[in-house]
Design goal:
Structural class: mainly alpha
Helix content: 55-70%
Oligomer: single chain
Distance between the termini: 31 Å
Number of helices: 3
Radius of gyration: 18 Å
Strand content: under 5%
Largest sheet: none
Shape: elongated
Amino acid sequence: MNRKKSSLVIAAAALILVAGVFVSLCVGAAGLGMEDVGKAIFEHGSVAGRILWYARVPRVFAAVLAGTGLSVSGMLIQTVLSNPLAAPSVIGVN
């Protein structure tokens, strides 16, 4: 892949990540709309702020961290084995 195409793919992936994070902050048992999430970011004492900061932000952070770890580990397995189709079962990781 050339440099311009790589930059475009990375930018698209980052945009999808940001959109996914925002949607994940809105979705939950307590229905918070986009306006509620926007207000709750700055209002920690409100009910919506507590839901956002104590439940949803840690959940989103953990999901992003887990996804990052899985993608890096998959890349490392494929790089070490010099095989773009390598899976964890190849070296007995799973």
